Amino acid sequence: MSLAVVGANLDGARVGLRAVDGVIVALGPDVEPEPGDEVLDGSAHILLPGLVNGHTHAAMTLFRGYGSDLGLMEWLEQRIWPAEGRLDDDAVYWGTRLACLEMIRSGTVRFWDMYWHPEAVARAVQDSGVRASVGFPLVDGMDPERGKQVQAEGERTLDALAELGPHITPSLTPHAIYTVSEPTLEWAAGQAADRGLPLHLHFLEIEDEISGCETRYGIRPAELLDRVGALGPNTVLAHGVWMDQPELELVAERGATVVTNPASNLKLAVGRIFPYEAMRAHGIPVGLGTDGAASNNSLDLLAEVKLLALLQKHRQRDPKAMPAEEAWAIATGAQAPLLGGTPLAVGQPADFVLVREQAPALEPGHLVANLVYAATGEVVDATVVDGQVLMRDGVVEGEEEIVARARECARRLGVTDERSSD
Amino acid sequence: MSLAVVGANLDGARVGLRAVDGVIVALGPDVEPEPGDEVLDGSAHILLPGLVNGHTHAAMTLFRGYGSDLGLMEWLEQRIWPAEGRLDDDAVYWGTRLACLEMIRSGTVRFWDMYWHPEAVARAVQDSGVRASVGFPLVDGMDPERGKQVQAEGERTLDALAELGPHITPSLTPHAIYTVSEPTLEWAAGQAADRGLPLHLHFLEIEDEISGCETRYGIRPAELLDRVGALGPNTVLAHGVWMDQPELELVAERGATVVTNPASNLKLAVGRIFPYEAMRAHGIPVGLGTDGAASNNSLDLLAEVKLLALLQKHRQRDPKAMPAEEAWAIATGAQAPLLGGTPLAVGQPADFVLVREQAPALEPGHLVANLVYAATGEVVDATVVDGQVLMRDGVVEGEEEIVARARECARRLGVTDERSSD
Taking CB atoms and an 8 Å limit, are B324 and A69 in contact across chains? Predict the structure, then answer.
């Protein structure tokens, strides 16, 4: 299986790429397709690395717009949790396929998921052709006894996910320190270490997490994670907006990665803008996520990266803060190696996108600035993962079926409005 | 000239529309095309009013991404102002065409512009088929003598714009109270009143405007505008983020409209999020704008409306703040009659858009929530203004030429990067 494309790089110079069996084998100004190569047309395109979505609940596309504009607990208790109780493998599969469709359409090649029915998530990821870290949200309601059942289910899931193909990285995904007891957190950290898998959890998204932790444990959330062995170079902390100075130092020392989700933080009104300048000062690897579609409501990282940069300018009251190049590096995962984004280079996976050079939003040039500040996912014309063309000329195979099946599942779950149920 | 379309409304119910000579003559569940009608296919589409962009410098598409991430004065003094000095009618024409192309592609039917070479702007608007309020930025450097020349030029421009066709509303556009002397402001207000034209100016975008005004005049900016007669029901105030309580009351009493530009305010780090809840409490009509592409860098109101709503949730620390319906009303101009947005109704102008019902971002329903929080301009498939189909099936006639000519103009002005100059 070989694939070749000739396009332009960010400076407008010709660049050819050849991939064999999913790996880039040649890249440079003089690289040409060879006989037998599948050829992807890049003649009016910019060749870019794919984007990495560091925090998702992919199948929540089914709940997109359901109960928007409610208070957080009302939304969760009256809408989301009851609906999640009705989920089955089929619904999660098609919800995840819809999420993968959106991500492929907007140039995302890899994402970090945490959701129910993770084997269905993993099948959808494999069938879509993208890559994902997949985990089952551990929740024991702060009850170590219930935690033991959750652990047993967690082990079974990890074993099953390990069988599910090369695009899936199983991960341990305890929900948060306020929904998972200390023994279960410790178990998760131990499993991650034993199996060499990443640990991915919500962390300091909401301010109440601090007082809750201090009341229960007498320490700050990062100290708790450290005590149970959950803070290390294989840890992805989603959100992290409420870290204090000692926590920044501890997280930096342990080498954990923090993923910011700007739209979700604003939509759920968490009360604080991600303190990126502090992360940067401490050398903490930072990635970008959309969170689930129910709290964003989009999975388009090219829209999200604009918000990432703009909010930092606002927060620091400095238009020079978070220049476009830095935001772009974060969106491609280049600042956080754990997230698994890969650069365009020989020997690297053939994961990349083609962007339309003549998209009006990218005119008249200044590509990095305009990818960050002006583009949305619609500028992406082709998405390639593992040498497979998942979108070509703006078309993803099976798109209509995916949309129809996901809509059917949402109707079955009773989460659509009248319009969709007629 | 008659046009007919049958689509669905926001509730998914069938709706047919017929327009004759640019005016909606029939609208309802049973309306069908009649013999001789041009028929627009809306079978998989939602029929919506067009969006209204309340503040632009359209031709600044030419400077999109030029000098991004600089401090405000460095950006203006070293990049934008020298480049603007090299502008000519041709560049402004094609820059505005590019802006109109983006706006048509993302469902905007009317915009409020303030830019140099306004006759070229107006020609571009007419040729694009959209509608705009067009004005020449009055700037006299606080020098009333220079102001007299500017006034003479302003009068000539207003006379010329009045000739330029039915889609153009000439307007008086003094730049701001810190660049225009009091006599020139007063002249502008008088001209607007005499000619029955709107007045559109920057107002309290930057905090320094307050101290500058207090030092020079001993009063607050809104008081100055009121003293010169510039604050009335025909006034559009762009930005307004730094209004204090008495100014809110005064602006409300005079009936002026305020247009918020969320992305631009963040990007230029003006330091404060638009105090929408105060505007609402005072009953001030509010509209939405993108500002120029150089400080956004997009003209896509479907992206902007998300930011509008999310920032209000953050500012008020309440996920229920600015629900989707309210944000949508603002984006369509329904909260600010002066801006000229029109509802879908018999007797109204045939200005509307068709949105793809099966766009992944709009699944699985909850259309208003997902138009606001999930969609970008790419969901728009057709845009109609004055009964003319400006985009059909995602295609705008002449798109390639517009992009190429705008790029040429940017090169000629020396504002592209190396990539674009090769």
Answer: yes
